[in-house]
Amino acid sequence: MAGETVLIVDDAPVNLKLTDILLRKEGYKVHTAADAEEALKLLRGFRPDLMLVDIQMPGMDGLELTRRLKRNPLTRDIVVVALTACAMKEDEQKALAAGCSGFITKPIDTHTLGNRVRQHLDGRDAAPSAPPDQKLRADGKGAAPERAGLSFSDAELEGLRRRFLEEGALQSRQMLECLDRNFDAPKTARLLHQWIGTAGVLGYPAISETARRVEELVLSEQSAERLHAALTDLVFAFSEPREAAQDPIPAFILDTLSGKAIAMVGFAVEEGERLCAALERAGARPRSFDLADLPESGAVLDCGVLLFHVREETMGAWWINPGAKEPPHMPLVLVGRRAQILAVDRSVLARASEFLIDGWQPEEALMRLSFALSRGVPAAAPAPATAAARPGSGKAEILIADDDPVVISRVRMTLEEYGMKCMVASSGTVALQMVRDYRPHAVVLDVNMPGMDGFLVLAAIREQGLPVRVLLLSARRHENDISRAFNLGADDYMVKPFNQVELVARLKRLVRN
User: How far apart are CA 170 and CA 164, in angstroms?
Assistant: First the structure.
């Protein structure tokens, strides 16, 4: 029976998200870390039942992390399972010698991952062999991986694929540009190794095979000419899939962001470049500032919104110091991993207009920024502010409306853990009547309910002037849906699968405002 806690340690964002989704669907409580150092910090506060640890990570690798865990009496009983893109006997032996209970070969078989984890938790012998569809070549390398049957919703799969293609297109171009200067062969080989497995799982065999070919050239130190040709092929491979095509940006986002100067502070290089590319598509003018720059400088004051990248290297910066005062006209948007954002002082979190949690898609970033910039504009219905201020039990009262009992259960459990009082409705008609009768502070409203869907409920709430904040949940990330939601008067919009802590933060902000 699931319910145990699993910590996943992997430096590849798409792999991390993919494994997270799969295990949550199996009922496990999942925590994630992007490197060994972050994992060790997390382990100071809790003890997972099992850890899935990628062997090849920059800095401290997975095997060294395992050795440290097994030397420590407080962590030696944690079951550790290695994740590796190699299916060679020597890798199995190294993993077992370090203290792993076994290993799982990438690309992950999405049908069997839950069972493999269960076998290790039950203490049974989970044979650390490659999945059935990953046959070994004589040199120990897997054949070009076939697409696994993914147990994801269309929205989950689309989100993973688009993130993978977007990051791959950017990083493969950077590899090509750096080939003649500052080319980091070990880092490039690690990234290519990740792509081989991830592309196979997500259904891109051409990318997987091209990445394998480039990896072999990098490791064998082939001529720059051959490597240039292979990297060019890889760039094209990332741009060919249908999901790589960029949808038009909604008019309301263009109207809000076009020509606006955006202050970006503390961003890691790759994250900053990715965000800049999204902003420039919308006609915005991103400006990068160092941590040492003064928040009150003229260049900063000329910007319309401040984005701050919360990460270990920026946690002590004055920009997010409780005593710092950002200009009153400038919304603050915090970007970063969930755990690190939550570690920021509460007074700073209260000042934030928006949060952009790692794993974001470009259209989500643009939507959040445009929403932050326009938050001062009066809403279509002024009554929600009255609802947030009305007296009551002291607890925020939230109505959850969704036809999926699993979603209702998950959202309700999360909100109640954070001290909110919840009511539930399984249809749009019932939800609308409950808003009329009980006047909750906010409604978490599913867009795709049968009959009276979330859009119709939202339209009725605003037409009748009912005093309630509305946060829409949807499995659809299409820009037309997002635009329609805000045009109808939504206060916020989140895409499934959603981050539970982010949902709580957004509801708290809505009720507070």
Answer: 10
**Residues paired with residue 261 on neighbouring β-strands, in sequence order:** 285
Domains of the chain, CATH where assigned: 5-121 (3.40.50.2300), 154-244 (1.20.120), 251-374 (3.40.50.2300), 383-508 (3.40.50.2300)
Interval 203-226: pLDDT, tens: 888 898 899 899 989 888 777 888
Cα 188 from Cα 172, distance rounded (Å): 9
- Determine contact, residues 336/311, Cβ cutoff 8 Å: yes
Give just the sign of the alpha carbon dihedral 332, 336, 340, 341.
Answer: positive
Residues 425, 401 contacting (CB under 8 angstroms): yes
**Cis ω for the linkage preceding 328 (within 30 of 0):** no
Do 70 and 76 form a contact (C-beta atoms < 8 A)?
yes
* pLDDT tens-digit map of 96-114: 999 999 888 876 777 788 8
Complete DSSP assignment for 128-193: ----TT--B-TTSPBPSPPPP-----HHHHHHHHHHHHHHHHHHHHHHHHTTTSS--HHHHHHHHH
The pTM is what? 0.48
